[in-house]
Amino acid sequence: MLSGHMNIFRIAGDLLHLWSFLVLILKIRSQKSCECISLKTQQLFLLVFLSRYLDLPWNIWHFTLFSLYLAAMKIIFIGLTAMVVYLMMRRFHKSYDREADWFPHWVLIPPCVILGFIWNESTEGWWSPFEILWAFSIYLEAVTIMPQLVLLQRTGNVENLTSNYIVSLGGYRALYLINWIYRFLTEDGYRHWLVWIAGTVQTLLYVDFFYYYFQSRMKGTKMVLPTSV
Questions:
Q1: What is the full per-residue pLDDT of the chain (229 aa) written as tens digits?
Q2: 3-state secondary structure of 59
Q3: How far is CA 189 from CA 4, 28, 179, 181, 186, in A?
Q4: Model confidence, pTM
């Protein structure tokens, strides 16, 4: 019997998130290219995971099924994201299109830091470092996909593995929304407004991409986005 924390929607979301990593790494290694992939988005994801998973030692120490599950997922997500960044910066850096990946991703960080101080879930006041960093990571994750989407809008054409990667990421967030709704309906007193709002914003950023993805699948054509240039 699954607990509220370990319901089927959350597990499916985590597995789809894991699948998105595998699709991305397969794309880079099989094609020996990181074309159409935003290094800036991957760097932001790495910052998100490093900021959020500072509680990893506690997960391992508690040694329960749920805590060990969390620890395993956190280690995998950090490791795979670091691998993608390494592949893009070292192994296949010549195929990386810096000009297309133009979005100034650093501008996303200061507002998320400020929000982390203003609205976090600390019970010790605003100055709990772990809670501030955790909230910062939630806000940052909500907008981390933006450099990737901007890159694809600039190039227009989206090859198959790249589109599957982004759809898997968007699907993971959509499943988490269902997970939150399920927990709200089944757990007394379950409220998580910070996560709900940030997660909803993040999911909405994928809607346009989803539209063109499923449209191309129904027509059996290559996915093409309206270009920004």
A1: 344 477 899 999 999 999 999 999 999 999 999 989 999 999 999 999 999 998 777 767 767 787 888 889 999 999 999 999 999 999 999 999 898 899 999 999 999 999 999 988 776 655 788 889 999 999 999 999 999 999 998 887 788 888 999 999 999 999 999 999 999 998 888 888 999 999 999 999 999 989 988 988 888 888 877 765 5
A2: helix
A3: 12, 44, 15, 13, 9
A4: 0.91
